[in-house]
Specification:
The chain is mainly α. The chain has helices at about 1-10, 20-25, 35-45, 50-60, 70-80, 85-95, 105-115, 120-130, 140-150, 155-165, 170-175, 180-190, 205-220, 220-235, 240-255, 260-270, 280-290, 295-305, 315-325, 330-340, 350-360, 370-380, 385-400, 400-410.
């Protein structure tokens, strides 16, 4: 909650064109008596700073009953109005699931927007996603770039982070030379972050990091196997070698790294670098899922839904999509929406399907808006509303969905 408080404190921006709550609207006809009432009245007549402060009051429950959903609505409008600090605060809410559905992808996109707009703490929050590897965010180099940007922008936390990591190079180098495998891994991380003797982006940084990770792997550090596998799979600093990457991922998986199980499963599902073996992929996705990697749960769900490598089981697929939808993978909500719409593996429920597509469409993914639009156009699970359908098709078309573009041309022009 400390970071959330920071976000609320830095928030500043605009809020306009919103529907007023009954309590707020009534204040237009009365004389405000308390500071919060004054904020409500000022906000309803367009005083932008008041709207920002009102959102904070709702978030923290100061002077009004705590209402995270109402606060999120205010911050959503602030962000939409172009105030990037509002985007940062809204991102915090999405990351924690406060007043809005928990959605790490949406949070990341909001942090990105705020970071680009000069909100240093948003860069720090985004860097944290990359360091922790939440959702699709797994990129230590990107994290280092973000911390550097935040430091240049005056965020002391990022400056301290970079200084601390730079000071660790000599210590870990000595310990690694003395045969301490964990030190080799830590030194590899520093090279990946661009904090070794060579700078970020230098070819030597990748080759040295890869060698250090592999040395750590040979010393029994499973995370070293995982990181080295990524270098060989992508050909960064070493020759591209999918077979060797698979061997490293297998060591990582056996060492308890769930992401290594997922990566190995993905290689077996795709084939090419290793033999195509969907049955083996399914077993690895299962292991990754049990290890806490929601993308493993999602990937297993697809195989179960389609009956590839495993016996077809749409009910179990639905349960896995539900799990991923509640955590970080909004694409799980998307696949689950189809099952509810069509009554496969679950009881048919078009209203539930609409709610799931709404959640996905509200995020940053390309999917969901077209499917929701079709439900509004046909009046399935929602009240028929062709205007709303057209708006959703427009949004989907802007995101590159050719089906939506065709629907607009054929039925709404």
């Amino acid at each position: 909650m400390a970071r959330l408080s920071v976000g609320l404190c830095v928030l500043s921006g605009v809020l306009g064109g919103r529907a007023m709550g009954g309590e707020e609207a009534s204040l237009l006809q009365s004389v405000p008596r308390t500071p919060v009432e004054r904020l409500m009245q000022a906000c309803t007549v367009g005083k932008l700073e008041a709207c920002e402060l009102l959102g904070r009051h709702y978030m923290l429950g100061e002077g009004v009953p705590k209402d995270e959903r109402r606060a999120a609505e205010l911050f959503e409008k602030v962000c939409a109005g172009g105030a990037v600090a509002g985007c940062f605060t809204l991102g915090l809410l999405h990351q924690e699931g406060l007043g809005v559905p928990k959605d790490v992808h949406r949070a990341g996109a909001l942090y990105e927007r705020a970071c680009e707009g000069g909100v240093g703490m948003a860069c720090v929050a985004l860097a944290s996603l990359y360091v922790k590897g939440l959702g699709d965010f797994q990129d230590l180099r990107r994290a280092a770039v973000l911390h550097e940007k935040a430091c240049k922008g005056g965020v002391a936390e990022s400056c301290r982070f970079l200084e601390k990591k730079a000071g660790e190079v000599a210590l870990f180098k000595k310990d690694c030379e003395d045969g301490k495998a964990q030190a080799c891994f830590e030194l590899g991380l520093l090279y990946t972050l661009g904090l070794g003797e060579v700078g970020l982006g230098a070819p030597q940084a990748d080759s040295r990091a890869a060698a250090l990770y592999e040395r750590a792997c040979k010393g029994g550090v499973a995370k070293g196997c995982l990181e080295a596998g990524g270098f060989y799979e992508d050909g960064r600093g070493v020759g591209m070698d999918g077979r060797h990457a698979a061997a490293l991922y297998e060591q990582a998986c056996e060492g308890g790294e769930a992401w290594g199980c997922y990566k190995l499963g993905d290689l077996h599902e795709q084939g090419g670098a290793v033999s195509s073996d969907v049955k083996r992929a399914a077993a690895l996705y299962e292991k990754a899922c049990k290890g806490g990697e929601t993308v493993g749960c999602f990937s297993l769900g697809i195989l179960l839904e389609e009956g590839r490598g495993v016996r077809k089981d749409e009910r179990r697929a639905a349960a896995l999509y539900e799990k991923t939808c509640k955590e970080t993978e909004t694409v799980g909500c998307y696949r689950l929406g189809f099952l509810y719409r069509e009554g496969r593996g679950v009881r048919k429920d078009e209203r539930r399907a609409a709610a799931l597509f709404e959640k996905v469409c509200a995020g940053e993914k390309r999917v969901g808006c077209y499917e929701l639009g079709s439900l509004y156009e046909e009046g399935r699970g929602v009240r028929k509303d062709e205007r709303r359908a057209a708006e959703l098709y427009e949004k989907a078309c802007d995101r590159g969905d050719v089906r939506a573009c065709s629907a607009i041309r054929e039925r709404f022009e």
